[in-house]
Amino acid sequence: MATVREVIERGRSAKLKGDRRIAIIGAGIGGIAMAYALEQAGISDFTIYEKASSVGGTWRENVYPGVACDIPSHAYSFTFALNPEWSQSFAPGEEIRQYLENTCRQLDLNWRIRFGKEVVSARYRDDGWHLEMADGDSAVVDAVIACTGFLHVANEIGLPGIERFEGEVLHSAKWRPDTDLRDKRVALVGSGSTAAQIIPAIVDQVGGLTIFQRTAQWVFPITRERHSDEQKRRLRGDVARLYEIYDRIIAESQRDLGALSAGDPETTRRYFEECSNNLALVEDAGLRAKLTPDYQMMCKRLVMTEGFYEAVQQPHCDLVTSPIERIEPHAVRTADGAAHAVDAIVLATGFKTKEYFRSINPVGIDGITLDQAWADGISSFATVSFAGFPNLFAIGGPFSALGNQSYITGAELQTGYIIRLLKMLEDSGARALAPRPEAEQRFKAENAAAAQGTVWLSGCKSWFLDENNNFQFWTRSPDAYVEMMDEGPRRADFQLFF
């Protein structure tokens, strides 16, 4: 059986004439992966439009204390730019941002990027996609590849009275570099992966930390082992070893997460035991009860971090489970009537995960907008293309999230599928293509059907589901996703426009 890396390389092996104008939206992980794949295929007429002044995507935007990846560093890497220089087994955010910048520099991609160009409108016409920028600039291209991801619009929840708060209010995705929380009484709202990273990072600096938890999380322990200079030196001269490490980590992740999603009892027992032993580090029975989830492990995305339970047991740290009723000028008032005096509020409330590339406001055939097409829920075909929107493709689009898997791996797999779509377009002589509506509906139905009987429908609320309990992530095994990407598109599933 082929490795994931071999499937990635096979997917982008097609050679194209390169006579189409292509716009990539976003210079984060997806944009970099797509740019490399286009160049490998022989396409040179493409431009990357980036709203910010530098590359990096989510790793540029998220600079909160403790930000790090929960995927092993040697697997959270492009297959075409494996990195022997990772400082530790789970890299901090700033190091990942630097890695992405270095990769762009090594691939000589920066000249292709138009920084400060936020695409705010994309309208399809017979002569292609007409793009409008926030600064009034415009462009016409044959195809658009949206690489905006799905973790880029902060979920700034509207807490009643927050506008009256007289202290500092921060969202984790909009952290200000000059923020100083030393000796302050801090309220932290949230309990997911971001909160679990921030809490250990700030607990020793603040005067007091009150955590407002809506839902307890299963926390899988990881250890951030430092890589020695000698380890890095050996890897610099051994590319084969880097590939071996990458292949092993990805294979283990595919195996374990596939087994967990299928309900394999032995794998589930092993992960549950790790999480339970981690939770047992909490000595106080009352606090441990508050931190114990009331849903099955893996119903939500597993939080993977270190030092969380040690941090919440600090004497100046308090865990509150009563819902927030309102924010007062100097306090957070909860439903039980308690007023928790604080000097600063940190919102670790995540992202609006259903935004995807809505910000570019695509308008497809017959003037149908993306919001209209998605009125009954997000949609895609094979996670990369969209009925009614010819030559619009996406990296990290609807149904592409693979739980606790590497986003980079998923993005690289998708680039190969898109290259094959462009090859299909070239071979057909058509000017555009889009999935047939019935093919897209079939794909959505198969994805929903695969979730039946899984842990994801066992009763919890998570960002995996929308407000109507429709899935917005991949519900089958990781191996099944790799197989779909490897098989590539079928002509019968697509409508061609001549």
Automatic annotation (TrEMBL):
<dbReference type="Pfam" id="PF00743">
    <property type="entry name" value="FMO-like"/>
</dbReference>
<keyword id="KW-0812">Transmembrane</keyword>
<keyword id="KW-0560">Oxidoreductase</keyword>
<keyword id="KW-1133">Transmembrane helix</keyword>
<keyword id="KW-0285">Flavoprotein</keyword>
<keyword id="KW-0472">Membrane</keyword>
<dbReference type="InterPro" id="IPR020946">
    <property type="entry name" value="Flavin_mOase-like"/>
</dbReference>
<feature type="transmembrane region" description="Helical">
    <location>
        <begin position="21"/>
        <end position="38"/>
    </location>
</feature>
<dbReference type="GO" id="GO:0050660">
    <property type="term" value="F:flavin adenine dinucleotide binding"/>
</dbReference>
<dbReference type="InterPro" id="IPR051209">
    <property type="entry name" value="FAD-bind_Monooxygenase_sf"/>
</dbReference>
<dbReference type="GO" id="GO:0050661">
    <property type="term" value="F:NADP binding"/>
</dbReference>
<protein>
    <submittedName>
        <fullName>FAD dependent oxidoreductase</fullName>
    </submittedName>
</protein>
<dbReference type="InterPro" id="IPR036188">
    <property type="entry name" value="FAD/NAD-bd_sf"/>
</dbReference>
<keyword id="KW-0274">FAD</keyword>
<dbReference type="GO" id="GO:0004499">
    <property type="term" value="F:N,N-dimethylaniline monooxygenase activity"/>
</dbReference>
